Fold this protein.
Amino acid sequence: MTRTVDVAIVGAGAAGIAAARRLAGTGLRVVMIEAADRLGGRAWTRTVEGHPLDLGCAWLHSGDRNPWTGIATDRGLAVDRTPPPWGEQAGDRNFTPAEQAEADDAIAAFQRRLRDLPADRDAASDALEAGNPWNGLLQAVSGYVNGAALERVSARDHVAYDDADTGVNWRVREGMGAAIVDAAAGLDIVTGTRVTAIDLPAGGVRLETSAGPVEARAAILTVATDVLASAALRLPRALDHKREAAADLPLGLADKIVFALDGPAGFEADTQAVGNPRSAETGSYHLRPFGRPLIEGFYGGIAARMLHGLGEAGAIAFALDELAGLFGTEIRRRLRPILRTDWTAVPFVGGAYSHALPGRSAARAVLAAPVEGRLFFAGEACSAVDFTAAHGAHATGTAAAGAALAALGQGM
Ligand SMILES: Cc1cc2nc3c(=O)[nH]c(=O)nc-3n(C[C@H](O)[C@H](O)[C@H](O)COP(=O)(O)OP(=O)(O)OC[C@H]3O[C@@H](n4cnc5c(N)ncnc54)[C@H](O)[C@@H]3O)c2cc1C
């Protein structure tokens, strides 16, 4: 049987949930269709051994202007304002204060060169200095930030995010994924239902789904770029430019390995150490996040790809070797892996977050542009400046919902 609604939202991640919240209470019939059996997409908190662990987003980036900060607070969740320990090296292990100062200078100089690149050079790697001893660290940082090697990242895109970032980063004690999913309470959501095709018949949108067709006056499509660029969801040929834009904004890689730490002794809460500050193939280790007996390794870009190639046991062994290199071999006896992510294997997502390929930063606007006042696009990749992040996803979801309302003659 065909279901008929005013607005169909494809995907119940941060963007879809934000869009549905914007449309709630307008009197429109709205349904959110989610392929997975859970909500949240890349916002995903799992409780392991009593600890709420974020597999995806964990930080309220630009927390002082991030809408999820207020939403989490309003819903009674605890926003933690402890500053992140990024850029610190606990105990100066394997990284002397003088080297850290040199590395900080190298990062600052790299960021200046990124801004000064000539118009015809847009690979972020063009701003590297041949032979600079901190190029590995710069690649590791690109891994965390972009999920990709600098050679694969548009310099203009990279700078746009940096310029918009307020530098304030907070967390949600109960988990950021949990906060985003909690915000979906009361919305009309169908899970375990995949949208396989979207057509634009006169006056509306028709969605083929694994549970039958849905006819809508408007639809908001929020799937990740790698999903959109693949053949998993069929769009009319006239929308090939959307698929091409999505392909210009591929998902990078970012993954986590979390260890339970037997006894907190020797580790200060909420500190950090980089495994090898001279290599791109390294992780950053958040020690005792929230004071919990945990060490959380984070790997992006080149390092995440390398871990992916090592498989589960190899990735964990790599992390243990890095931690033993930092804290001595005795640490091995105190660590037990309790979580490892592989976002390439997460169905209906397939990666971490979008980065624009060199020369392709304009693809974000192409992807975000509405089609004929009835098909709207949202999701982190559609944000002009807050891409990669859940607040960007929120902004694009809210904007798409507002545009859909206006198109349906209900602009408010
Ligand atoms: C390891 C990691 C760390 C991160 N850290 C941070 C962080 O600290 N702070 C931050 O702000 N952001 C972070 N992010 C990014 C953040 O999680 C994402 O930007 C955000 O969650 C994306 O939301 P979205 O709604 O755009 O996309 P998604 O979350 O991908 O939502 C899209 C939804 O569409 C569904 N879907 C796909 N195909 C179909 C289909 N055919 N039919 C129906 N449904 C479909 C998917 O299942 C998914 O639920 C991180 C991400 C990762 C992976």
